[in-house]
Amino acid sequence: MSDVQHTELVDPTQLPVGEPLAWPVLDKDGRLLLRAGAVIATQQEREFLLKHFSFYAGALNLAAPVKADSDDVQSERLKSVDMRLSIGSPLGLRGLLATSGPMRRSRLIGSSPDRALFVTSPGAGRLPLALTPGENLQVVAIGAHAVFQFACTVLAVCNQPLEYLVLSAPSGIRLLRERTAARVHTRLAVRYRTLEADTESEGLGLGRDLSVQGMSLMSARPVSQVGTHVQVSFPISTALVDTQFEARAVVRNVKESADVDGSLAYGLEFETVSAEQQFALRSFLFDCFSASAL
Fold first, then answer.
1. Do 4-61+182-293 and 80-178 show the same overall fold?
2. Domain 80-178 maps to which CATH number in 2.60.120.280, 1.20.1560.10, 2.30.110.10, 1.10.340.30?
3. What is the pLDDT of residues 188-230, one digit of tens each?
4. If you average pLDDT over residues 262-269, what whole number do you get?
5. Was domain 4-61+182-293 assigned CATH 1.20.1050.10?
6. What are the pLDDT digits (tens) for 6-21?
7. Nearest in space to 187 (alpha carbons), one of 171, 159, 169, 208
8. What is the pTM of this model?
């Protein structure tokens, strides 16, 4: 998990209703709950948040390295073909010796018969990372079912027909974590909005049991019915990405929660998630897996 600098526990009176927050709000583990500028719309939302979260004001340090789980599988003699990466697979790049620097986002766009990799220039168009031939890189590749880490050397820096890099065949490949739709126990402040005209509502809920396929959303008031659709949104901040995750989801089940306040737990299955949002979600889940094992 990213390093965080927090101040003392936030006094509940410092959480205004109907006004933009002057600072980001973190939970007790340092994860981002609400961004600076976010608005708590109603007193009911404020009371719900105070019931389920302990708030800290602070600043995120996103320069922390991506860490492997303590029980990582130290795979022996893995080859490039074993990773089964597809065109468009998300990658994180940084200098091999820059272990405290942030990963920069890239994507796989092709490979050669000798397993050299063609990847988009990291951060092209937005604070691009300047690389030169011969430079050694540490790479994290996020596949559909696993996360890998390996080393590469920059063979060429190209500008036509687009900005891209040619990297040597991966070496020292390690399998970091199996990714078979595992769920992570989370506590997220999730903004939701129903997409059915006859049951229109919106509010803040508690997001739990997150996976690449869906999540559980707990709310103190009715959200929607089984088979209907909702839009969910929550902030994601990791060493790889800093964005607002947004997705359309269908309600698969509704259950009473264990809380005595009458809250309902809605099982949501994500339906429409862009490639960028998939990358952000997988990065966040990997960050959570890593933190839980430290």
1. no
2. 2.30.110.10
3. 999 999 887 666 678 899 998 898 889 999 988 888 889 999 9
4. 87
5. no
6. 445 567 777 888 888 8
7. 208
8. 0.57
For the chain, the residue count is 294
| Both structure tokens of 63 | 């320069």
What is the predicted pLDDT for the residue at 37?
Answer: 85
Q: Where are the domains of the chain?
A: 4-61+182-293, 80-178
